[in-house]
Specification:
Number of strands: 2
Helix content: 40-55%
Radius of gyration: 13 Å
Distance between the termini: 33 Å
């Protein structure tokens, strides 16, 4: 599969510590993932359900 046809996988990161979000987002982005992040489960559910 070449890069033109590769589907980008999205990973959801939920953590209340910004340093953890930054670390995970950087690591995952470098691996080619699209990262969505939230600081609480409640906030994530609200955004995803709307």
């Amino acid at each position: 599969m070449n890069k033109a046809t590769k589907i980008q996988t999205t990973i959801l990161v939920i953590d209340d510590q910004q340093c953890n979000i930054n670390l995970l987002s950087n690591m995952l982005s470098k691996q080619g993932y699209r990262v969505l992040y939230f600081t609480s489960g409640q906030l994530a559910l609200e955004k995803i359900n709307n």
